[in-house]
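FORM 12-B: Structure-to-Sequence Request
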């Protein structure tokens, strides 16, 4: 089994303190991890952000849940991730990570990379693991948004995107496929802006919901329709 990322052992002295200070939760405590994720903007949230309509839809999902609880495809992905992570660690020296980090100076901006490494130079490199039933000619745009957001949150220089294609849940290659994605500060700036818009939509909706609850408590539901 792959050895999980240990911030105290894996980070350099200068970077180590920053790593530890920016860990919010760990998915090994799933309840705490989900609670922490619900209070910020994650890479999963940002992957959906492309248009103004997508911001509204993401806000609804954030406030009320998407209703998606998983399926055979996500179950397969979860079962294969430790196997793929072991390959990533053995070949590329990137340890699996279950830590949820926040960005420097931005406690609402969150990410849980699948893999994390600090090289001798101090450069941070990440891994993102996917499974797919279809061949990829290029990395899907939504996954690139996830990658760029994680790079922003962690201060990473690049990310190894690793994917395993399967046919009826049987891997089609002896080894996963992979491609490095370099940090793109222009794309990151766009995503940070979209995330800021999402936060504002969420804050307005929460305020409206709170006002509605207060009105119902003071006057009863009938007063809302007068």
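FORM 12-B RESPONSE
SEQUENCE OUT:
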């Amino acid at each position: 089994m792959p050895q999980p990322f240990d911030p105290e052992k894996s980070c350099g002295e200068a970077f180590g303190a920053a790593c530890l200070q920016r860990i919010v939760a760990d998915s090994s405590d799933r309840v705490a991890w989900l609670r922490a994720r619900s209070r910020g903007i994650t890479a999963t949230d940002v992957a959906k952000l492309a248009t103004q309509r997508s911001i509204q839809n993401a806000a609804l999902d954030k406030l009320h849940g998407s209703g998606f609880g998983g399926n055979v495809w996500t179950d397969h992905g979860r079962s294969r991730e430790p196997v793929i992570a072991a390959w990533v660690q053995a070949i590329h020296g990137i340890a699996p990570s279950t830590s949820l980090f926040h960005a420097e100076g931005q406690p609402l901006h969150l990410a849980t990379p699948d893999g994390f490494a600090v090289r001798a130079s101090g450069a941070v490199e990440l891994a993102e693991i996917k499974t797919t039933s279809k061949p990829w000619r290029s990395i899907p745009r939504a996954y690139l948004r996830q990658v760029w957001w994680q790079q922003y949150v962690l201060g990473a220089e690049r990310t190894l995107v690793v994917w395993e294609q399967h046919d009826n849940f049987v891997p089609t290659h002896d080894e996963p496929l992979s491609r490095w994605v370099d940090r793109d500060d222009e794309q990151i700036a766009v995503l940070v802006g979209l995330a800021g818009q999402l936060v504002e939509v969420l804050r307005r909706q929460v305020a409206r919901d709170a006002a509605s609850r207060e009105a119902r408590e003071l006057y009863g539901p009938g007063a809302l329709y007068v």
